[in-house]
Amino acid sequence: MVKVTETLVSPQSLLDSLKTDSSGSIVIHLGIVRPDSEGRKVSCIEYEMEGNAAEKELLHIENETMTKFQIQDVGLCRKTGRLNLGEVILMAVISAPHRKEAFEACEFAVKQMRNMTSVKKREHFKED
Predict the structure, then answer these.
(1) Residue 24: which of 92, 101, 75, 98 has the closest Cα?
(2) Inter-residue long-range contacts of 64-71, CB under 8 Å, 24+ positions, other chains counted
(3) Whole-prediction pTM
């Protein structure tokens, strides 16, 4: 499952959709808006995405992750719009028979999501 949305899918619903009787490990990563960036205080972040391009890019990441690692399933979500401190930016969920593959696949997928070319990030900083 991949999704680009203004309203993030709940981690529990992604977990439920990926969990199977043969899953030995499910790894969930939530990327969160941090309070600082490069030594400056962040007030919020805006993400703009080309809808179809972002979804296609997520599908490519999903397929690449499934091919590269011995896992069962992948769930990837990216949030678009204005995000305040502490809000979830992205979510990656991986189910696998074993934890090592699940963690490695999750780290790979998150790195790929952070490098998406269809996503434009604009940070807003607090005035000193």
Answers:
(1) 98
(2) 64/112, 65/94, 65/105, 65/108, 65/109, 65/112, 68/105, 68/108, 69/94, 69/96, 69/101, 69/104, 69/105, 69/108, 70/96, 70/97, 70/98, 70/101, 71/95, 71/96, 71/101, 71/102, 71/105
(3) 0.91
Cα 26 to chain centroid distance, Å, stands at: 15
Q: Are 31 and 77 in contact (CB under 8 A)?
A: no
10 CB contacts (<8 Å, ≥6 apart)?
none
- The mean pLDDT of 51-67, rounded to a whole number, is 95
Length of the chain in terms of residues written: 128
Closest CA relative to residue 90, chosen from 61, 127, 52: 61
Residue type, 103: F
Rounded to the nearest 10 degrees, the angle between the axes of helix 51-68 and helix 99-114 is 150
What whole-number percentage of the chain has pLDDT above 70? 98
Predicted pLDDT of residue 57: 97
